[in-house]
Amino acid sequence: MISLAGRDILHSWGKFVFTGIGLGLLIGITLSMAGIYRGMVDDAKVLLDNSGADLWVVQKDTLGPYAEPSSINDNIWRGIRSIPGVDQAANITYLTMQVRKKGGDVRVMVAGITPGGPGIPGWPPYLVAGRQITSSHYEAVADIASGLKLGERIKLRRNYYTIVGLTRRMVSSSGDPMIFIPLKDAQEAQFLKDNDAIWAQRRRTAENPAFNRPGVPGLLDAIIASQSTNPYVNAVLVRVKKGHNPEQVAEYIRRWKRLTVYTRSQMEEILIGKLIATASKQIFMFLVILSIVSSAIVAFIIYTLTLGKIREIAVLKLIGTKNRTIIGLIMQQSIALGVIGFVVGKISATLLMAPIFPKYVLLEPLDSAIGFIAVVMICVLSSIVAIRAALKVDPAEAIGG
Fold it and tell me: What is the CA radius of gyration of the chain?
């Protein structure tokens, strides 16, 4: 039986191999789609891991700071820092924007980190080149995926920043590379108004009689100065002391600070269960469609190959060959086609599709194993049509015409 299947494949090896390659490219796309989803989940987890936080304190009744806008006063962290069980608390801001660089522009997430140094929540945990930020202004650390180089100067809003360090796999939940700058600069960039808007606001303030009190000198100047600063951040990152329950600390903050607090598991649910839920459904639909198309291709090719050897099958029946031998012949050819397609697909997904895809593609061994089993099952099911056609062949056809 194996010899019959092998000899038949060798007889029409060109059609068989090229069909396997075409099927393999389709399987490669399917594996890449699964890898894209895995990459999205990994991006979300990496973002949380790299933040160095156990709790995220955000604006009340929001899903911030990643899934929704969040704005809280930048002095809240002091009160949180004094809560029992809190080890560290640090302000953080996030701003997604386009950054122009040599050769074009790139979409990044700009993170504003508090002064201090590595080890504080929000800071990049490690560098692959350069150094961490040491100045309170105009220095930046960038992820290498941004394409930025050490010493390169970039413009964020009005100010120019020098890249002093490079890190790796510091990305947003959508896979955008991150750039870290000092918190004050980030606050200014996030809520920056253009010159005309600032001038109009100061004029309205100056014309307001309530601010022109003769008995309070300097009041107007103080108000105008306060309008030029931004006292808000997107969240406070909290690290809990060892031995303390993060959920208990979170509940304490919710009760006394009247803010929304998320633990690590809750933030994962927001990012994975809500933020990328629609994308995961789309990817699942593509996987279903690609599986149906692959099944149709295998069924059509095996059926065509079977019809091309109707007389040979009739001869086999005429000499007394059992049906299970003929079934095995067809099924082995179908499985061989699937194996060739899977090998080509795995190679193309690993060496061609994943490296050039604009987002992170994570190809896990378990997904490949599941994919191989699915391909074999699809090939077995797809061969049913050809098997039915072969079993209906009349042995008399071996003698006639």
Answer: 31
Q: Would you state the torsion angle of the CA atoms of residues 382, 383, 389, 395, taken in this order, to the nearest 10 degrees?
A: 180
Residue 107 three-state SS = strand
**CA 129/CA 123 separation, integer angstroms:** 15
Q: Give residue-wise pLDDT tens across range 205-256.
A: 666 665 555 555 554 454 444 545 678 999 999 999 999 999 999 999 999 8
Q: Report domain extents, the chain.
A: 2-43+277-398, 60-191+230-258
Q: How many residues does the chain have?
A: 401
Write the pLDDT tens digit of every residue in 341-366. 899 999 999 998 888 888 888 999 99
d(CA 164, CA 130): 6
The count of other CB atoms within 10 Å of the CB of residue 350 is 17
Closest to 234 in 3D by CA, of 368, 120, 69 = 69
Please give the Cα distance from 205 to 215 (Å, whole number). 18
Q: What is 138-200 written as a DSSP string? A: SEEEEEGGG---TT-EEEETTEEEEEEEEESS-B-TTS-BEEEEEHHHHHHHHT---HHHHHH
**141 and 122 Cβ atoms separated by less than 8 Å:** no
Q: How many CA atoms lie within 13 A of 124 on its CB side?
A: 30
Quick check: 100 and 156 in contact, CB under 8 A?
no
Say if residues 142 and 167 touch (Cβ distance below 8 Å).
Answer: yes
